[in-house]
Specification:
The complex is a heterodimer of chains A (about 375) and B (about 90).
Chain A (H helix, E strand, L loop, with lengths): L34 H12 L10 H9 L2 H29 L6 H28 L3 H7 L4 H27 L2 E5 L2 E5 L1 H35 L4 H30 L4 H9 L1 H22 L10 H18 L16 H5 L36
Antiparallel strand pairs in A: 1-2
Chain B lengths: L11 E4 L2 E4 L6 H7 L17 E6 L2 E3 L11 E3 L3 E3 L3 E4 L4
Parallel strand pairs in B: 1-7
Antiparallel strand pairs in B: 1-2, 3-5, 3-7, 4-6
The chains are: A mainly alpha (about 375), B mainly beta (about 90).
């Protein structure tokens, strides 16, 4: 069935699977199949921030005073983050929106991708503040072979899924040969691609991003580039929410409660899924040695960052029900937690929205016995 | 809503061989930290799942809504407080 922007069929969206059911018609949230997505949306909206809120004046001075090898670490890390958010700002929409079937998940995907565009805008804000000509940095993202290698891994599955869904839209389900290229658009293969793409997104958000956060926060642990760390802290707060979303989608799909066939898909794709985690961990370790090839910085070197890659990969594998790949070890960067905790994002109430303060959240449920212990 | 009445007196928290009184910290995680117990955490707001522990005995009440899939005996220490005497178990690593 070809995609339609407003499905005229009458149906109950709470009976639809997350993916490959009917196209969504009315964006309604009064009845929800998975309230988790509504909670994620609300939380994400309460997190809204703008890069310009953070003053970066002292970062410019810090950057100028840095030794060359630290400039290399800082800029390479920033370029990598820019790449990751460029991908995430558009891909969840392009890849998943045409195949999603429940309104709260559709809206979560859009809310999620939107917040990534705020992250992208904040990189421009950061780069503008530390160099005179931002083009020098942005242009190198597509020419630096180390970054290109990563770009290919993070986009491969997204692209394959998008191509298959496009072909399926025109030619329907089945295996199609177009200009000598075989496109397996069977529902089974499409489901495998969705599952693996979601794993690859989870790897991007939950491992790759966290490795880059470690570098950003390592500078701030030495009280330099603190404005940058403030922005990255806000980005990390959003990413923690996004990865909760992808983990929840993966666990729901694998459980089979949403769509029984996805349980078989998850079993069939298990090895490939674990290989995605392993590949990312390997690449991140290579990246660590690239970052520190001209010298380490106080508090962080290639070895510690590689240990962190192994630690965080184990944590993420466990969260989606896979076995750990690396020896179990305590967090090699314990100071990361104080940067990742959301209640430490300090803001004066008059300056911005407080994330924990929700408007219109009165518990109005009343039961027969609620006044029993009242004395009149 | 839990039908069980809260225990009279201050809830006790048991973790392995260590038992201590809850001192009305904002969360169970804070209570553990007051005792200098290294409990896992990350977001401290109920959405990352890092602070998941097993509740072996007793009940907790939540101060915020979690967003993480939990097994029946798992709790998120960053958004709950003890409602009764409780016994918990931290994850292995």
């Amino acid at each position: 069935m070809a995609y339609t922007t407003f499905n005229a069929n009458q149906f109950d969206s709470t009976k639809e699977p997350m993916f490959f059911g009917q196209n969504v018609n009315v964006a309604r949230y009064d009845k929800q199949k998975y309230p988790i997505f509504e909670k994620l949306i609300e939380k994400q909206l309460s997190f809204f921030w703008r890069p310009e809120e953070v003053d970066l004046a002292s970062d410019r001075k810090d950057f100028i005073d840095m030794p060359e090898h630290e400039k290399h670490i800082f800029l390479s890390n920033l370029k990598y983050q820019t790449l990751l958010d460029s991908v995430q700002g558009r891909s969840p929409n392009v890849a998943f929106l045409p195949i999603v079937s429940i309104p709260e998940l559709e809206t979560w995907l859009e809310t999620w991708a939107f917040s990534e565009t705020v992250h992208s805008r904040s990189y421009t804000h950061i780069i503008r503040n530390i160099v005179n000509d931002p083009s020098v940095i942005f242009d190198e993202i597509v020419t630096n072979p180390e970054i290109i290698k990563r770009a290919q891994s993070v986009t491969k599955l997204y692209d394959e899924l998008i191509h298959l869904v496009c072909v399926q839209n025109v030619h329907g389900y089945g295996v199609h040969n177009i200009d000598g290229i075989k496109y397996d658009c069977t529902l089974w293969n499409l489901k495998c691609k969705v599952y693996l793409t979601m794993v690859s997104v989870n790897v991007l958000e939950a491992i790759r991003f966290y490795v880059s956060f470690a570098c950003s926060f390592a500078f701030a642990e030495r009280a330099i580039m603190e404005g940058n760390a403030k922005i990255i802290k806000l980005i990390a707060r959003d990413e923690a929410l996004h990865l909760t979303g992808t983990q929840s989608i993966l666990n729901t799909l694998a459980s089979g409660v949403d769509d029984a066939e996805f349980k078989e898909v998850a079993v069939a794709c298990r090895d490939e899924a674990i290989a995605l985690f392993a590949e990312a961990a390997e690449q991140e370790k290579e990246w660590a040695s690239y970052l520190f090839r001209e010298g380490s910085m106080i508090g962080l070197n290639a070895q510690i960052l590689s240990d962190y890659v192994e630690y965080i990969t184990n944590v993420r594998l466990k969260a989606v029900g896979f076995e750990e790949l690396f020896p179990v070890r305590p967090n090699p960067l314990p100071w990361m937690n104080s940067w990742l905790s959301s209640d430490n994002v300090q803001v004066a109430p008059q300056e911005s929205e407080i994330s924990s303060y929700l408007v219109g959240q009165i518990d109005s449920s009343l039961e027969d016995g609620d006044f029993d212990d009242f004395d009149f | 809503m839990s039908k069980e009445k809260p225990v009279a007196g201050i809830p006790r928290i048991k973790l392995g061989n260590h038992t201590f009184y809850y001192q009305y910290e904002p969360s169970l995680l804070d209570a553990l930290e007051t005792q200098e117990i290294q409990a896992p955490y990350s977001c401290r707001a109920g959405y990352c799942g890092s602070c998941k522990v097993r509740l072996l005995e007793g009940e907790v009440s939540y101060t915020d809504e979690g967003m993480v899939d939990l097994q029946a005996d798992e709790i998120l220490t960053c958004i709950c407080i003890p409602a009764t005497h409780i016994e918990i178990e931290l994850p292995d690593d």
